[in-house]
Amino acid sequence: MSEAMITCRNLKKNYGKQTVLKEIDLTLEEGKIYGLIGRNGAGKTTLLSILSAQNPATNGEIDLNGERIWENKEALKEICFSREITPTSSGMGVANYKVKDYLRIASVYFPYWDGEMAKRLVEEFGLDKKKRMSKLSKGMLSMVTIIVAMASKAKFTFLDEPVAGLDVVVRERFYRLLLEEYTETGRTFVVSTHIIEEAADVLEEVIIMDKGRILLKENTQELLESCFHVSGRGDLVDEAVKGYETHHPESIGRSKSVMVRTKPGQNPPKGEGITVQPMSLQKVFVGLCGEGA
After folding, report:
1. Quick one: CA dihedral 161, 166, 167, 173, positive or negative?
2. Which of 168, 209, 257, 286 is a plausible cystine mate for 290, CB 3.0–4.6 Å?
3. Where is the signal peptide (predicted)?
């Protein structure tokens, strides 16, 4: 049996005269954990809302196994987009719902809903089911987001800023839960987050967005193994990085630093008087999308 995949081609989204997504081509394969990262306004939430048919595209096609997703009940059974919740979110109308009511509605909406898992996670997170959503802290609202995503049991599950407002202990519990569920079920997860370093170890592939476009989609470990931070005296750095793909150069006096990305089979730069260091995913992201990159 072939693996499921979501494919979008030439995806574009306009809000009035503003183009938010530009010519997006993307394939999400079954059985992977993707990290979706980008600066504020890069288009991450808009992309996930379109991939889950919560928002119409201006142009382009989105398929699940060759079947259009838009207004396709069978395809949408396999997709959950558990977006960041705020009680005053426009059009969501969740402020007066109690937690138990919100989860009950979710159980009706998602056909593979796991009520026992939802109950266990409510207890584990210490949520008061009788509390109204408008009375929950930002962290508690994130817990509800996580519970809906996990208990949905959807084959393709998208989480938008799932750890916003959570303390470090609960964030670690979320990442363990994510890995446990992935290992047990083989579900596909796309996690949009600004807390990059914490998530890096659990992300099999990373998708970096910049200004409405997909900048890259690559295996996380392979990306990190190809990126280096080169620093030293400016003229020595310039000489060492000739012939390399470079990003985000910075100069202070006579010193210079730059991000280098090697091609397959290409060795890292070397030379007297320079320092070459590996880079974290967060540093790679800043190198590719930061000011001056």
Report:
1. negative
2. 286
3. none
- Residuewise pLDDT in 10s, the chain (293 residues): 457 899 999 999 999 989 999 999 999 999 999 999 998 889 999 999 999 999 999 999 999 988 899 888 888 999 999 988 876 654 456 777 899 999 999 999 999 999 999 999 999 999 999 999 989 999 999 999 999 999 999 999 999 999 988 999 999 999 999 999 999 999 999 999 888 988 899 999 999 999 999 999 999 999 999 999 999 999 999 999 999 999 999 999 999 999 999 999 899 999 999 999 999 999 999 999 876 44
Handedness of CA 15, 19, 23, 24 (dihedral sign): negative
Which helix (H) or strand (E) segment is 130 a member of?
none
Instruction: Give 203's DSSP letter.
Output: -
**Residue pair 173/166 in contact by the 8 Å Cβ criterion:** no
- In contact, 203 and 220? CB cutoff 8 Å: yes
Count the neighbouring beta carbons within 10 Å of the beta carbon of residue 136.
22
Label residues 84-121 b or e (16+ Cβ within 10 Å = b). Answer: bbbbeeeeeebeebebeebbbebbeebeebeeebbeeb
Q: Three-class SS of residue 284?
A: helix
Q: Any bridge partners for residue 206, and if so which?
A: 35, 218
Q: How far apart are CA 135 and CA 174, in angstroms?
A: 22
> Which of helix, strand or coil describes residue 235?
helix
**Cβ neighbourhood burial of 132 (10 Å; 0-12, 13-18, 19+):** middle
3-state secondary structure at position 222: helix
Both tokens assigned to 217: 């989609």
For residue 225, give Cα distances in angstroms to 112, 141, 237, 257: 39, 36, 20, 18
